[in-house]
Structure formats: C-alpha cells, structure tokens
C-alpha cells in the first residue's frame, strides 16, 4: 500500500513519514521544486516534485496511492502578504482533496490545528466540540486553517473518507524552520529569553503527534476531529523544565500584557512598511491572552494516542537544535 504525504519536508510531515517508514509502509512525498530536503535526507521515500495548488501535479503524485496525509500548510504568525497563506492553506487544501476524490483514495488524514477549535481560556481546556466561530480566530494563520477545515468537511459530505486531526503544540526533533515554539526554545538556549508572558499551551511529543496521524487513519471515524495533544502547561513552567534540562536560568520577569500588545501592534505597523518580519508578532501576543489548553482524551480513548513524557520531548528538541547548530 503506497501512501502520499504532503508537507513532508516540514516538522510534523517529516515525523509522519518516519513513523510510516517504521511501520514498513511505502511512502511517496509531494515537495515543491527547490524545497529544502534536509529532513528527508537518507529516507527511503519516493520524491515527487509538484505544487499543491496545481491539480495536475497532485493527481500525478496520487497515482497508485491508497492513502493521503495532507500535512502541507503555511504556518507563520506574520506574513507580508497574507493572501499567499490563504491560497496555500485553503485553496491548496481544496485542490489536494479534489484530486483525492477523483483518484479514489481510500482514506485521507487532514492535518488541521487546535487553533481552529474553541478555547474557553482561564485554564479551562477546549475540546473538539467547544463552540467556536470564524470571529474567534486570531490572525491569518488561524483564520485560514479554520476555513480550510470547513472545506475538508465539505469533501466528507461529498463522500471522501477523511478524518481530521488537530495537533496542539508539537516539540521534538526535525523542527527545521523552526516553528514559533521551536524558536522560543532556540532563543532560550541562546540566553535571549529574559522574560515571559503569563500564558499556557498544550505540548505533545512530535513523535506522538505523528503516530496519532497514523492511528487516525487506522481507527478514526470518518468526518470526526481528534485533538493530538498531551500536557497543558504554563509557559513559565515550560521554561523551568528547560532550566532542569540545560542548566540555563529560566526567566523570572513576567511581562505585562497590555504594554507588550501595544509594542507588538507598533512593531507590526513598521513591518508592513519595511517588509521585515516583526520581532514581536501581534498574532502571537493576542493568542497569549488565553491559556491555550486543550483536552485530548478523545484521541487517547478512541485512537490510543501515546502520551510520552513532555520533559523527554523537550530534551530531544534541545539535543536536535544543539546538534544541528541552531545555537
């Protein structure tokens, strides 16, 4: 059985590929021409060059494949041209899923995000059924993924056997970009994290997140959503774990929210003029207004999602960043 993975050069995508290969699966990956293939180096995969916005190249990549993992996405907290993010995340999803429907793929796992889900805040975890609307989405990334998830649901109604997974915040090796959370870890390792915001997030080992994708393929209910998460933790406590792992002092100063929000707003206005990425992304600060806690019990109970040690995942993340000269 051949499986196609989009987004295979990215953090979650490459870990999905590695888990599939460990299961003895035959894997094909769809990558953009000129993409950084470092995460696929020495992996026994069939590389197909193409673009998720090009239906012809997607159909060609899907030829002979029974299963599709659509993990490709434009994940940024800021973009000079947000239309590019919307094209990739929404239009790209429609193109890929239309090709899957035409190709008669037997199963699709669509990678969404917990960012599309409702979150009560104030330490209360959200779940797959927490009420939410587009107006609750902060920033272009969340908006684009929310709308893309609605498109995926339309394909289920058209008969595509698709299951949706909503990863929380994965940590671990192969965070090549790095992701916003990976950048926090790198900045901590570089002693560039003098203070913290009073916020929280849900962490999951990226290997567990990848395994959750495969479990969703094998055990997930068509059209259903599954949060792939593990531990709800305050950001200051994540830094304390990093201090235990590295010996680097965790930040002790808590930043006040409103002045930082104003600084981020000003920083983003300057970035719009200069085109340079803001040092303080406004969307990131706005998201931090809530404790982004989530309940992954559905995936644990229905799929058997592993719940590996978060400290161990942070250790592997630190080791990978150090070994690969990010520090």
Spell out the CATH superfamily: NAD(P)-binding Rossmann-like Domain
Architecture, according to CATH?
3-Layer(aba) Sandwich
Give the rounded overall mean pLDDT: 91
- Tell me the span between the first and last alpha carbons: 40 Å
Largest sheet: 7 strands, parallel
Tell me the name of the CATH class.
Alpha Beta
Classify the beta-strand content into a percent band. Answer: 15-25%
Lateral strand order in the biggest sheet: 3-2-1-4-5-6-10
Model description:
With 327 residues, the chain is α/β, with parallel strands linked by helices. Helix content is 43%, strand content 16%. Strand 1 (2-6), helix 1 (11-22) and strand 2 form a beta-alpha-beta unit. The mean pLDDT is 91.
Spell out the key features of this protein.
single chain; 327 residues; alpha/beta; Rossmann fold; seven-stranded parallel β-sheet; 12 strands; 43% helix; globular
Give a quick summary of the entry.
Helix content is 43%, strand content 16%. By secondary structure, it is of the alpha/beta class.
SSE inventory with pairings:
Elements: E1 2-6, H1 11-22, E2 26-31, E3 46-49, H2 55-62, E4 67-70, H3 82-103, E5 107-111, H4 139-157, E6 162-167, E7 169-171, H5 180-189, E8 195-197, E9 200-205, H6 206-219, E10 225-228, E11 231-234, H7 235-246, E12 253-255, H8 257-274, H9 282-287, H10 297-303, H11 310-323
Parallel strand pairs: 1-2, 1-4, 2-3, 4-5, 5-6, 6-10, 7-9, 8-12
Antiparallel strand pairs: 9-11
Helix pairs in contact: 1-6, 2-3, 3-4, 7-11
